[in-house]
Specification:
3-stranded antiparallel sheet; 41% helix; homotetramer; Aspartate Aminotransferase, domain 1; 2 domains; Aspartate Aminotransferase, domain 2; 333 residues; alpha/beta
């Protein structure tokens, strides 16, 4: 059983059905009716007017989003181990034309105004120095933590004060919403978020993400940058269909709840091995090399993030019962 | 009936079936068995060792391919109206870090050594001037022409002489092969091609293309550039599955033949309106504004490329019988 | 005697004296008094508030100026043989992050609204296509022509209508002013120019140019981009001193008049060999290979631009009497 | 008296004389005899064949040097507070097309194999992660330390083992050589250095630096990149002349010794305020705000690097006697 990533999960049957339903002669790129309907659909979901730029990967979504808010000579405040820093091979640098990621230490991958303020103050203000133009945070974080609304709002306030844009890498935004049990608006624009990378792939879609622009005036630039990045799919209807399917009957929420529940179900088995509170669908455990080997010998797949630290990710397709074998194996260590 | 582009066609049922068959828990990115098997599969198809970099758009494939062969301070010889020049919003400039596209006039979009030589000779050799590092040609061309093997070989020879890499934009490579009725190797490496953007989307796939590296030593760089460009799909198995399906039982060939046949079936109806010989699946017709309006009123969709010039593209899903209404309408003008 | 370029001329004694006068302990970069005084000095010269960004090369000035007005996904309309196109090795592409130069045919290197309009209309408007954001013209042109105020205003009007910024490559702006015998404002912002690359090197300075921003609000970005481009000199006072010296007692004008007069003095000797009217300090002559060889054998240095076309450039240090030997040699051909 | 930077110093009289001596009609760019002679002159100086690319700033030299060795998707190991990181506004990112600077902690700005190894090991090896291609170190360091030959060789050995290029930012290379009292070859290629940014501006030149390529085969690319960056001066002879003058009769060494001696002369006055050993021409002192204000009131100019830390830089034009007033003032605190 694979716990490497929620990307190992299959596609949800309702998403696959939507893909099949879209399989007909239609206009190319994003001129089809499904793509054209996205702005309205997500504006309703977010309770305000938004523009939706579908994308096929989260890396591309993050880089595109940040390229709209940070010039080549600027910098982006983020945490030291953010996905944009360590897992995207310089995609932000490519799309921004060479802007710099300015890492801040952040326990659990959770930024806070104090750490941001310290980093901002460390930066010179003259022309010799990279000035920050944006903050990028991840919610749920790379360590499975979820920002509270108050935490987000505090960062949003700092951003307004400092003239910084606020980007959220929401590869697991649904898991964060499910944990907070609140509306999408609460963890986004109402807290001061300007642009959101909204992930669906990890939550049951095939390869479908979106950049949500809370300032729709930037949509034309975003669409040109998407094309320039080679991300305007020729047959866009197959990705648009997935986004609609994920919103239909709150499939996104049901899936995220299942993934979160599966992770939560593992917690009682791990005791004080747990390195971060489990608020979404990831567990980080302190395990020895022997223990890891023992688990692998039983067929469990997972990543060793660094020496002695293992990451387990649950997904929408796993019922609590499905992860019981892992719970048992962990408890038996 | 839509003749705007072969991108308006649906996905071939066998491709859709392959996608469904791949729908299971599996390794992420390109660590799944289907992705891992691509190099071997295509090496057999091309009769030599190649590396396969799956991509989701042709624009991304072209830009990635060229970024491997042209430095930021270099130039790429191509024809004035090549897709990379007029339809990709500067994707090549983005991926190469600012290399320049050096257009050459080319009737029917078909480059030839003489036109290339003239353009090369027009470029200064000193450090002030952009030097060419590659030639990019499109086959079948943007005007539905197909290069003969001799034409390709002549360009390949020029490239070797001048130290230029040779890239082929093969968005409609299958249509070209079907027309020439020859093996993939003949229109690629045997003629001197270094790197090929191999299209499947227009020929029945969902959003699936590939960069074929005839120099597999460049694969590591290509894979890093793919990730950096945000094109490493999280669930790569759904794209790898399509590439396998297209090769299975020569589905690619059957599809391309159908598209070409549908285009050929329209030729008798158009008389001297035809602006370029029909060798693949596109027709370019001289039509007045009134004539275009008349056709549109009958439900035919097509692009007006420039004043008085209309483009009709057929696709794999159209039998000759399917395009008969258009043939009649054209004949009746 | 060298007529390759006005860059072959020495530094004017008054400029050298200004450099020596600046040779003292002082603040680094542009914090010295001479650099700090440039905005005020040039604001007076231009009869409006401007910001001055000193630069050491015209190539760097052009690329910086255009990077302020054209995003990476945009294009810049210019003539086919503009210096930015053929003589700067892609500097504009580097500084803009990959914007595209959109060449227009232009006899004598002189753009006009009709040619610009035709080029604009040839460009698609959708996201697939590079959209223009600026026009870049050269005055005096690369062929020694000078725009009239009316010609400039017509282009300025087009730019306003189309929402395009207007940049002037003024490597020989002084020669143009001297020819038109008008104030700097007339050939710049009063005609609709947004940003000017103002050259002094060819007119008697050592390696000193400036970007003149008629919108001083862009100065902060320009200064950051200058630093990022490695063009913020550590000892900026030595370049600032030159700009002041060039304005002092209208040295710029005296120098440009001398260069123009030297060129004009050659005209009677060349008859119908002359390919472009001489309005600044360059002559383009139709000469056979034998004639060129004959001139070279007599010690005259000049560039052969293309087969049968020779360029002769005069400079501020040449009196009419100094070029008499060349006049005689040309007349004797 | 200004101790902000060695950039505040004037130009050495012999350099100014060389500039005047070069002031004549000559070939443009780097076609003049002085520029053409640089390769041979510096090859002798370095005791092996090198190629010399003159540049006008250290920032430009660093960025150009690194662009030759690190692709856009790569990274450059350096220390957290290196000039390329904190004082160049992203110049490396611009010239490399978006490569990443990978900071390592380094006391005194002095890298060591252990810190580099730790950083390398922290980087993932897959396509998701930025891979290092080069190490960039500064000698003398930004904190006035000088690498021993053994220290350099150890880093050079690590670079060879790991397949990394080794770049030295030698803005104060002369000060390092003067301190070590060794030949230029010892602190460069013999220790494994591939490319050196060789500074002269801080040591008595006007705005003159050089990139020294120990692999001359890269010279053509370097020269094209210099032009593209707008750094090919039109009148290059005025910069080439300076480089020759600095080597003549070892002016570089005399100047560096004077600057180092002036710094050393301050040491006895500062007691345990000294934060780093003084090996070149910089002192870093622990001073309270009141103490700094007191010094400034006496006319001493210096930078406060961070709260409580002041930097004093001496220069070639200061005799030991010249800095005595500062020594007295510091001793009196």
């Amino acid at each position: 059983m694979l716990f490497y990533s929620d990307n190992t999960a299959p596609v949800h049957p309702k998403v696959m059905e939507a893909i099949r339903a879209a399989d007909a002669v239609d206009f190319a790129y994003d001129a089809d009716a499904l793509s054209q309907a996205l702005d309205a659909r997500f504006s309703e979901w977010f309770e305000r007017e938004v523009a939706v730029i579908w994308m096929s990967t989260g890396t591309a979504a993050n880089a595109l989003a940040l390229s709209l808010y940070c010039p080549p000579y600027g910098g982006i405040l983020t945490h030291d181990n953010a996905h944009v820093v360590v897992d995207e091979c310089g995609a932000v640098e490519l799309q921004t034309g060479g802007a710099r990621l300015l890492g801040c230490p952040a326990s659990g991958g959770t930024l806070n105004p104090s750490a941001l303020r310290t980093r901002i103050d460390s930066l010179g203000k003259g022309v010799h120095h990279t000035r920050p133009f944006a903050v990028s945070l991840t919610n749920a974080t790379e360590y499975g933590r979820v920002y509270t609304r108050a935490q987000l709002e505090d960062i949003g306030t700092l951003c307004r004060t400092e003239g910084l844009a606020l980007h959220v890498d929401g590869a697991r935004f649904a898991n964060a919403l499910a944990h907070q049990n609140c509306a999408p608006a609460e963890l986004s624009w109402r807290a001061g978020v300007d642009v959101l990378s909204l992930g669906f792939t990890k939550n049951g879609a095939m390869n479908a993400e979106a950049v949500i622009l809370f300032d729709p005036a930037r949509a034309d630039e975003a669409r040109r940058r998407r094309k320039r990045a080679g991300h305007l799919l020729s047959k866009g209807r197959y990705i648009a269909a997935q986004l609609h399917a994920m919103l239909e009957d709150d499939l996104w929420l049901a899936n995220a709840r299942k993934a979160n529940a599966a992770a939560a179900a593992l917690v009682p088995a791990v005791g004080d091995r747990l390195l971060h509170p489990v608020e979404a669908n990831e567990l980080f455990l302190s395990l020895s090399a022997d223990e890891m080997a023992h688990l692998r010998a039983q067929g469990f797949g997972f990543h060793e993030l660094e020496s002695g630290v293992a990451r387990f990710v649950t997904s929408w397709h796993q019922e609590v019962a499905d992860v019981a074998p892992l719970a048992s194996a962990l408890a038996a260590l």
